[in-house]
Amino acid sequence: MRARQDVSPRSLIRDQCRVCNRIESPRLCTLCNVVPYCCRDCMLGDRSEHRRFCRKINDARVAICDTEGKIQSRLQEDTENPWRWPSFHRYMEARRSEIDALIAVDTYEAYKRAWHQAKDMLLFSKEDVLGIHYYIPFLLIRLRKEQRLFDYLNWYACRPGESIRELDLPEYTKKDIFDWFDVDNNTETRGSLYFFTLLILLKTKFLIDIYDLERPPEERGDIAKPVSRRLRNASARDLQRFKEHLSFQICLLHDLRNFKNPYFWQAFTQPNRFLNVEINPNWQQGSFEEAQFVLQKTHRAWNAIPEARAAVQDLQRRRWQ
Ligand SMILES: [Zn+2]
Ligand SMILES: [Zn+2]
């Protein structure tokens, strides 16, 4: 095992100077446009540190621009699935490299551009050969766009005419879930590891909102506004009831996840031990490595939110002593 990155990143603040943390009329690095500085001195002082990150973003940009024109014109003429062309692969890989380089920079502005890039890649290519959808939750949590994540989950996991409701999302029975897991190599979206990870994280978010709503207004945390409209208008008694309901559902999902993949809960409760390992990049769907990949990315984003850490600890105390 090799330590790779801190699993407790800081919260991101838009326009915050990378060097001195001041938030005032920032200027962005003129090369990558995603790192804010309050003044020229801060920009120059950070240059040696920022240079290699900046270069990676620009290298990816150059690779994208080099191939973009040809790809666009071939797409106009050729009706074949473009994933069969090596040039299309290279083009899309360059776009993914830009996302990776932006994530490494770790500023609000960089995540915002990475999110736009990822979204555009998913809309642009019919198949997600490079696994871009795995980036979406991480990017959205880091940008604190939980409502978007909820909408995304609905889009990703639901059949036409079906939707996941906020607090009941979705109303699984134990039998349903065991039935899904009984199928070998389950390709059913709702049975997938990825879907379960997201569902647990989102339910945790709803629970965090409840904890936050139960505090007096002046003590409320970083939560901008609760995702669920039902939560926002609920009475104290209803909040208590929802809390029990959600805790039960999260525990059920965790238990079932553990049944299928014991790594999940260990990673959640001991991130420093389990989330710092290098992952084999050729992981298969439904594998241990897939869980590692999704969890490393999403857990890191989630862990930047103090209320999320507190809610998970509280769940641990209540259910898993
Ligand atoms: Zn500064
Ligand atoms: Zn730069």
Automatic annotation (TrEMBL):
Coiled coil, from the record: none
The record's annotation in PROSITE patterns points to: ZF_MYND_1 (PS01360), ZF_MYND_2 (PS50865)
Keywords, sorted A to Z: Metal-binding, Zinc, Zinc-finger
- What Pfam families does the record tag this protein with? zf-MYND
Start and end of every MYND-type domain? 17-54
Q: The organism sits in which domain of life?
A: Eukaryota
Q: Which Gene3D superfamilies match?
A: 6.10.140.2220
The protein's name: MYND-type domain-containing protein
- The organism named in the record is Phyllosticta capitalensis
Q: What is the lineage of its organism?
A: Eukaryota, Fungi, Dikarya, Ascomycota, Pezizomycotina
